[in-house]
Amino acid sequence: MLDQPTVALPTQGTLPQLKLLLAGPRGFCAGVDRAIRVVEEALRRYGAPVYVRHEIVHNRTVVEELEAKGAIFVEELDEVPADGHVVFSAHGVPKTVPAEAERRNLLYLDATCPLVSKVHREAERHFAEGGADSRHILMIGHAGHPEVVGTMGQLPPGAVTLVNDAEEARRVHPADPTRLAFITQTTLSVDDTAEIVEILRSRFPLIEGPKREDICYATTNRQEAVKAIAPGCDLVIVIGSPNSSNSQRLREVAERSGAPRALLVPRLRDLDWSVLENVHTLGITAGASAPEALVQEMVTALGHRYRLEIEERTVKLEDVIFKLPAPLG
Fold first, then answer.
1. Average pLDDT of the chain?
2. In degrees rounded to 5, what are phi and psi of residue 170?
3. Total-model pTM
4. Most buried of 118, 184, 192, 286, CB within 10 angstroms?
5. How far is it between the farthest Cα atoms of the chain?
6. CATH of the domain at 309
C-alpha cells in the first residue's frame, strides 16, 4: 500500500485562524487498496515490468508511484508483449478483454473490485434466466466510464440499455416493459440514483432490482461524511482526480448539502490559494481512489499559512478488506 504519513504542523504563532473539518471516512476504499496491492504483489512476484490495462484506479499519484516501481500502463492488450504479465483495473473489463488475453496466452490478473464483480453477476443472472423469463437490463450509470463499459460488456450487445440520468429514465422505452431489471454503477450519487430508481419503478412496476443497493459502501459512506460537514463550511475541497466518478459526486454532494462552494483538487500543487480568501471554515475529504498522503500534504501546507483548529468528523468506521485474487491470494 502507499505510505500514509502523519501531519507535522509548524509553530503557528500569529497566523490567521482557520477551522478545518476533516470528513471521515475518506480516501482509499477496500477495492482500491486491493487493486493497488495486486499490482505491487505482481511486481514483487514476477518482477518489472508488469502491464496494467487502463489506470488501475483513477488517481495520477497512485499511477505515478506504481510506474516508479515498474508498472507500465497501457490502453489495450495489443500494447502488451507476448510474454507480459497484465493486470485489469479495479473498474472491471468487458468479457472480450480476458478472452483476448487467453487467446494470446498472456498471464493476467483481474483487479476488478469485488463489488463491481457483484454487479456483473447480477446482470448475468437477469440475462441468463432463459427464454421468456429473461429480462432486459437498464443500467444506471455514466456513459463512457470504464465501470459502465465493463459491466455492459458482460452481456451481448443490445442486452443492456444505459440510463444516464433522471431525464433519460423518463424517456426510455424498452421493448417489453414487463420484463425489466436494473443495475447501477457503484460510484454514483446516492440521492441521484434514488431519484432515478423511483422514476423507473413508477413507470415499470414489475422491474426487478438488486436485493441490496449496487452503490458501494465506500461511496455511500463518503457521501454521508460530506453531508455531515458541508453545512458548516465556507468551502469544501475534495481531493481527487477529475476522471474519478466518486470524487466528482462528492463535490456535487457537498454543494447540494449546504456548502457555498466545493472544489475538486487533484493534489496540493493544483490548489489555487486565492480560493481560501474569506474562508473561515474549510472542509476536506478525498475520493475513494485518493491516498491519505494527499490529504496530509494539504493539511501540512495549510498549517504553514494558518493557525489551524482541526476537527475530524467520522460518520462510520470501515473495516472491509478484500482478499487478493488467485494466483496472488
1. 94
2. -75, -25
3. 0.91
4. 286
5. 74
6. 3.40.1010.20
